[in-house]
Amino acid sequence: MIFDIETTGLAKETERITCISYCSTIDNQVHTNMNQDEKILIEDFFIELNSTNEMITFNGDSFDIPFLIYRAFVTGAKGPTNFRLPKHIDLRKIAGCFFYNYEKFAKGSLNDYAKLLGEETKLTNGLAVVQAWKDQDLALIKEHCEYDVLLTVKLYKRCKEIGLI
Question: What is the pLDDT at residue 83?
C-alpha cells in the first residue's frame, strides 16, 4: 500500500494529521480519509494497513511513519486485534541512493522526482496545506495528498522497472 499523510505542521507533539491518502499497488485506486477526529482517522487507516504486507512511502521513514505513530500515542488510536505495522519501503531512500550516498541533502524531493519522470510538478507544498487547514479548504488538502500518492505510485513503478525494488 502506498500512502501519504498531510498535517497541520511539522511538530508531531503539537500538530495533527489532517488527511491520509493511500492506494494499492495493484489497482492504483486512491482512497482518502479526512475525518475531523484524528483518533478515528488513524484507527481507520490502521484497519487498511492491516490488510497489506508492505507500506510504501516517499520520506516515510523520516516523517509519515514517526508522525503517525506519535499521534496514535497522543490520541489513543488503536489498531485492530493482532495489528502490526507491515514492512516499509521508503522510496526517497531507494531512489536517492541513500544506502550508497550518505550526503544528507542528496535525496531530492518528490517534486524533483516528478520532473525526472516527466510528470507535472505539484502546484502546492506543505506550507500551502497548513494554510488550507486553517482556511478549512479541505478540497485543496485532499487534492495535494492524493497527487503525492499518485506521484509516489509512478516513482514506485519506475523503481521496479529499473530493478531498484
Answer: 84
Three-state secondary structure call for residue 99: coil
Domain ranges, residue 65: 2-161
Quote the CA–CA distance of 18 and 138 in Å, as a whole number.
9
Cβ neighbourhood burial of 37 (10 Å; 0-12, 13-18, 19+): exposed
Q: What is the DSSP letter of 136?
A: T
- This prediction has a pTM of 0.91
CATH number of the structural domain spanning residue 29? 3.30.420.10
Strand ranges (DSSP E) for the chain? 2-7, 17-23, 30-33, 54-57, 87-90
Please state the rounded mean pLDDT for residues 31-39: 95
Q: C-alpha distances in angstroms, 27 versus 24, 90, 108? A: 6, 20, 27
Q: Are 41 and 35 in contact (CB under 8 A)?
A: yes
What is the domain count for the chain? 1
